[in-house]
């Protein structure tokens, strides 16, 4: 059996440390030993320092069954512990070959990893830890802010663990760290408030902190202990992500030594699945603590993470209440539905209080309304243009505008904005001025790597380095952003209501004008249909008398003139009658009734019997459907269509009119509507070119010479008006020299009412 170590010998430097496989170092710290068991209870991994603890060499252990090395009792205890649901809370206290150990066990893929440390003496310290924890919980209830709680945890953790310095280290969004709270020996320089760059804790280290929430380094000068295994496959390794004894990155060790630290305890603070921060315990001499104290310290971290949301809510509660109050007052303003209401809104102090802004602008209909500390109108317009061009969303929020638009970097009046597009070129923008801030870093973050004759190293200077931050405002809080968002919706609705109100007023005014105009037209219509009828009757009467008295008519030219006058008067009376009929349709208020079109056709043909006979016309028809309509309108409709066919009959053939119908629903393409009944009048007259299919339905729309084809040009316009009134439509298809098809379509819905 060949045995090999699994030590990772890749050279780690500051140029590649971000990719260091820190979860598989292949070695551990020497204050304990490690054994790896297969599921068959065979020892597959072992550290070479096992002999320092139990007097047996790793070569005598690897490849053996656990029972053969440690006996039945130890094997049973170990696997009972593995199957115990609380195994991760307390370590297993066990006798291994006559010596007492505290063993932590976890599973790494298919291997059970046993990490054994000599049993710590003095169980009486557990009572002290318990007492301190009870006191802490009591004091915790008296704190209100997150900062006060973290300060209490730092103090409590230091009392429990005895480390020289305990810091609560909080990360920002970029994982730069800040010492948020601290408790340390009086003779030590305070790190409270110092910031550290994200490069101090690389991404893979942060990921490991999430997996393994407690990390211990007992002595920075330790000599790492290699792990050995059976050489039975290539690239065989052991993931130590959850290990307590795992050896630390040499870069991290050098970094801590540069700070003068010789022992550390690190506890992860996980909030909503993200690494929120760390409890970082530093000691300036080698130091180890018992598993029970480690557990108590870990509990301190859980106190923080369980309270983050509550304490942050308490910290922001008063300001959030003020924002909510401002929003309530602003939305409760009694505003008229006029453009002048924007003046009242912009001057309301609550508009600034909603998000604690220093200035605000409302842009609507090309006009800019401003209050507080705001950019010029020209700058506001330029800002909107830039945002619209580069930001697809309707909302844009930043506390450092120059990061997106460098041209605004020198304007201290508006370093931060909350921008909302309200649609239709309406906007609201809140502004915050530049806030010059000073950040104290624990060493220059730009010099995290030092180069000397021996190569690259972590920085060894942790002297306070001050950074001045410009061109940015204070950050917008979540409740401020939400308050602005809520009011943007309210403002959008207000602007829409103003527009609708103005449109309504405009339409009301137009309606009044139309009403007055219609009244005047009615008067004019009355004059044309009544007052003008009497003179025309007299003209016809006089011309008739004169034509009946030969003695009066002395020449043929006079007779011809009188005939023309009589014809003109007759056409004039016909025109006035048609105009009257056309206007009557508009004012029809009769209810729709179910009407049999067969009866309508019969009545119409009876009325037109003489005209049909004079033209020798042949009318063929099939059974027609029942529709919802108005009786007199349908008779007028049929009469006008038949008269139109007879009027434009061809002189070369006997007039023939075929009337067909259908009750099948049909989609009429030109109107994109479905109608359920149609009737088609097809004649063999002179027809027309299809491009005139709409012209023939217009009032006075004529295609032919008036002398040759009599009529007012209103007949088919009346037909169209009637069908519109009944909720239907009419369509004509012309075949020049062959005839015309006129189709009328009736709606499906019997509840359609008459149109105005």
UniProtKB/TrEMBL annotation:
It is an enzyme of class 2 (transferase). In the N-terminal section; belongs to the phytochrome family. CDD domains: HisKA (cd00082). Gene3D superfamilies: 1.10.287.130, 3.30.450.270, 3.30.450.40, Histidine kinase-like ATPase, C-terminal domain, PAS domain. SMART domains: HATPase_c. Residues 527-750 form the Histidine kinase domain. This is histidine kinase. GO terms for molecular function: ATP binding. Its EC number is 2.7.13.3.
């Amino acid at each position: 059996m060949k045995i090999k170590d699994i030590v990772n010998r890749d050279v780690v430097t500051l140029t590649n440390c971000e990719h260091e496989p820190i979860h598989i170092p292949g070695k551990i710290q020497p204050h304990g030993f490690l054994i790896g068991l297969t599921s068959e209870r065979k020892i597959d991994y072992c550290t070479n320092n096992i002999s320092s603890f139990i007097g047996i060499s790793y070569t005598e252990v690897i490849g053996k069954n656990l029972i053969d090395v440690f006996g039945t009792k130890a094997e049973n205890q170990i696997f009972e512990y593995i199957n115990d649901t609380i195994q991760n809370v307390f370590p297993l206290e066990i006798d291994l070959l006559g010596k007492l150990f505290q063993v932590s066990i976890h599973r790494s893929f298919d291997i059970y990893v046993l990490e054994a440390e000599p049993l710590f003496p003095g169980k009486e310290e557990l009572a002290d830890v318990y007492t301190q924890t009870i006191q802490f919980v009591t004091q915790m209830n008296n704190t209100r802010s997150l900062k006060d709680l973290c300060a209490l945890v730092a103090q409590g953790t230091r009392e429990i663990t005895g480390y020289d310095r305990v810091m609560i280290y909080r990360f920002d969004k970029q994982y730069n760290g800040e010492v948020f709270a601290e408790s340390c020996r009086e003779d030590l320089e305070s790190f409270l408030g110092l910031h550290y760059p994200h490069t101090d804790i690389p991404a893979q280290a942060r990921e490991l902190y999430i997996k393994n929430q407690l990390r211990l380094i007992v002595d920075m000068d330790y000599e790492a202990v290699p792990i050995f295994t059976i050489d039975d496959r290539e690239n065989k390794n052991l993931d130590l992500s959850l290990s307590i004894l795992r050896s630390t990155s040499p870069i991290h060790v050098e970094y801590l030594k540069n700070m003068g630290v010789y022992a550390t305890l690190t506890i992860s603070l996980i909030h909503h699945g993200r690494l929120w921060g760390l409890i970082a315990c530093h000691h300036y001499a080698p130091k180890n603590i018992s598993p029970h104290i480690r557990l108590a310290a870990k509990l301190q971290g859980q106190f923080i993470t369980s309270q983050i949301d509550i304490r942050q809510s308490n910290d922001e509660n008063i300001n959030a209440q003020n924002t909510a109050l401002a929003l309530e007052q602003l939305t409760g303003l009694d505003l008229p539905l006029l453009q002048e209401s924007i003046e009242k809104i912009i001057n309301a102090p609550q508009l600034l209080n909603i998000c604690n802004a220093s200035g605000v602008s409302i842009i609507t209909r090309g006009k800019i309304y401003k209050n507080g500390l705001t950019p010029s109108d020209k700058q506001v317009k330029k800002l909107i243009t830039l945002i619209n061009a580069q930001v697809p969303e309707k909302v844009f929020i930043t506390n450092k505008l120059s990061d997106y638009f460098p041209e605004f970097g020198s304007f201290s009046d508006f370093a931060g904005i909350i921008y909302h597009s309200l649609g239709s070129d309406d906007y609201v923008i809140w502004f915050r001025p530049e806030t010059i801030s000073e950040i104290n870093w624990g060493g220059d973050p730009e010099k995290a790597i030092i180069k000397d004759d021996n190569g690259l190293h972590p920085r060894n200077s942790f002297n306070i380095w001050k950074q001045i931050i410009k061109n940015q405002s204070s950050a917008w809080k979540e409740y401020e952003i939400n308050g602005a968002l809520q009011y943007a919706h309210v403002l959008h609705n207000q602007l829409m209501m103003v527009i609708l109100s103005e449109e309504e007023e405009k339409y009301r005014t137009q309606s009044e004008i139309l009403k007055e105009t219609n009244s005047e037209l009615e008067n004019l219509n009355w004059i044309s249909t009544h007052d003008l009828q009497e003179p025309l009757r007299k003209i016809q009467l006089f011309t008739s008398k004169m034509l009946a008295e030969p003695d009066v008519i002395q020449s043929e030219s006079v007779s011809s003139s009188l005939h023309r006058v009589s014809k003109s008067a007759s056409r004039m009376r016909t025109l006035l009658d048609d105009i009257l009929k056309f206007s009557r349709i508009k004012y029809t208020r009769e209810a729709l009734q179910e009407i049999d079109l067969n009866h309508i056709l019969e009545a119409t043909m009876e009325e037109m019997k003489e005209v049909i006979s004079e033209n020798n016309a042949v009318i063929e028809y099939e059974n027609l459907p029942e529709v919802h309509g108005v009786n007199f309108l349908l008779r007028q409709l049929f009469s006008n269509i038949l008269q139109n066919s007879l009027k434009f009959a061809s002189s070369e053939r006997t007039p023939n009119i075929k009337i067909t119908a259908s009750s099948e629903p049909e989609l009429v393409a030109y109107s994109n509507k479905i109608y359920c009944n149609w009737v088609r009048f097809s004649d063999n007259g002179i027809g027309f070119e299809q491009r005139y299919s709409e012209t023939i339905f217009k009032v006075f729309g004529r295609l032919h010479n008036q002398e040759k084809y009599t009529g007012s040009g209103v007949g088919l316009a009346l037909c169209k008006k009637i069908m519109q009134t009944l909720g239907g439509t009419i369509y004509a298809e012309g075949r020049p020299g062959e005839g015309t098809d006129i189709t009328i379509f009736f709606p499906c819905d019997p509840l359609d009412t008459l149109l105005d």
